[in-house]
Amino acid sequence: MIDIEAIRTQFPILSREVNGKPLCYLDNGASAQKPQAVLDTIQRAYGYEYANVHRGLHTLSTISTENYEAVRGTVARFLNAPSEDHIIFTSGTTEAMNLISYGWAAPRMQAGDEIVLSIMEHHANIVPWHFLRERLGVKLVWVETDLNGDLDPQAVLDAVTDRTKLIAITHVSNVLGTVVDVKAICDGARARGVAVCVDGSQAAVHMPVDVADIGCDFYAVTGHKLYGPSGSGAVFIRPERMAEMVPFIGGGDMIRDVHRDTVTWNDPPHKFEAGTPGIVQTIGLGTALEWMMDVGMDDIQAHEADLTAYCRDRLEGLNWLNVQGKSATKAAIFSFTIDGAAHAHDISTVLDKKGVAVRAGQHCAQPLMEHMGLTATCRASFGVYNTRAEVDTLVDALELCHDLFA
């Protein structure tokens, strides 16, 4: 059981006011706030321990390298990966998807090959595949949700043909909150010899993730949604897929030898990590993941399930509010519009006057918006530090919006 007040005291930003009102931060789907433990790690790393990694034998370089490389094991434990050697550090999920596109997909695909996507994908899990469509003639095959916003795993598998090389799928929709049964998709794809890339950006913060059980080939996470720093992230890659990859970015650290006429690569995972990395960002990510595991991922999931159920009930009582996505398997993400109201940006502005921070726009999911016949929505997304009282604050602010715009 989570002591929510004890949790909240660990986030300094939650004590501030916005427009004279206590901050009610419900934009966690875009980026989560940082606990004091992460802030302290960043301050210590920059203030007392900073040096470049992998490049020096002096004390500070040794400390930085040890702290940086220790995070690889932390990520492996967080995702239940078989080995830390299966973890590649990235700046976030966007870089991870581009790494997979350039490093694994591009060398093994040709015109007419297919990639299966759901209509719910974030642009980070769309645009890298469009690169292959434009440059190689790869075909993108789209699978739509049902009216509740659910994605049938069998519909995804039914879209697979003998030309399908990859299924690229979100674990949790950043707009609808729908939780996708990625394990069922991976089981079926493996039987068909098709690789699966899972975007775990919105899932890993809300629930335990076990990549060994899921059976995916790739699983990407981004640090700033995991209560860690921006510019940090990681991707799990199955060793047989990693062995098939070529480097995406060239430079220092990813090489073994460089000569005038030849170059040889470092061993994975360093083979795919060129240049000076986000040292302190990654160290901060390690602290954030340790913090989450100390709180307990099962307890985080249970707390947010309670918030989700409570928020669903409260929002359903507003008969003028249109909540997008009615999935029974839903993370703590709610996307909505108001009947007769102004644009989502106007709604967000009114909520901000009440101290409520929500997202407004297309949420980097334009194909889904087009599918739903919408130009924009507001999105309230919850984290471990949010409370039922903040759900009530959201509802009160929405009622004010309705009164203003009705």
In short:
It catalyses: (sulfur carrier)-H + L-cysteine = (sulfur carrier)-SH + L-alanine. With 406 residues, this protein is an alpha/beta fold. The chain has helices at residues 4-8, 36-48, 59-79, 93-105, 127-136, 153-158, 182-191, 211-214, 239-243, 279-295, 297-316, 344-353, 366-372, 388-405, and strands at residues 17-18, 21-22, 24-25, 87-90, 114-118, 139-143, 164-170, 195-199, 218-222, 233-237, 255-258, 263-265, 321-324, 333-338, 356-357, 359-361, 377-381.
Characterization of the model:
This protein folds into 2 domains: 4-30 and 296-405, Aspartate Aminotransferase, domain 1 (Alpha-Beta Complex), CATH 3.90.1150.10; 39-294, 3-Layer(aba) Sandwich (Aspartate Aminotransferase, domain 2). It is globular and about 70 Å long. By secondary structure, it is α/β, with parallel strands linked by helices. The protein contains 14 helices and 17 strands. It has helices spanning 4-8, 36-48, 59-79, 93-105, 127-136, 153-158, 182-191, 211-214, 239-243, 279-295, 297-316, 344-353, 366-372, 388-405, and strands at residues 17-18, 21-22, 24-25, 87-90, 114-118, 139-143, 164-170, 195-199, 218-222, 233-237, 255-258, 263-265, 321-324, 333-338, 356-357, 359-361, 377-381. The longest helix is centred in the first third of the chain and has 21 residues, at 59-79. A 7-stranded mixed sheet has the order 4-10-9-8-7-5-6, with helices on both faces. It has a 4-stranded antiparallel sheet with strand order 13-14-17-16, with helices on one face. A two-stranded antiparallel sheet has the order 1-2. 46% of the residues are buried. Helix 2 runs antiparallel to helix 10 and helix 11 (297-316) packs parallel to helix 14 (388-405). Helix 5 (127-136) links the parallel strand 5 (114-118) and strand 6. It holds the Pfam family Aminotran_5. Catalyzes the removal of elemental sulfur and selenium atoms from L-cysteine, L-cystine, L-selenocysteine, and L-selenocystine to produce L-alanine. This is Cysteine desulfurase. It catalyses: (sulfur carrier)-H + L-cysteine = (sulfur carrier)-SH + L-alanine.
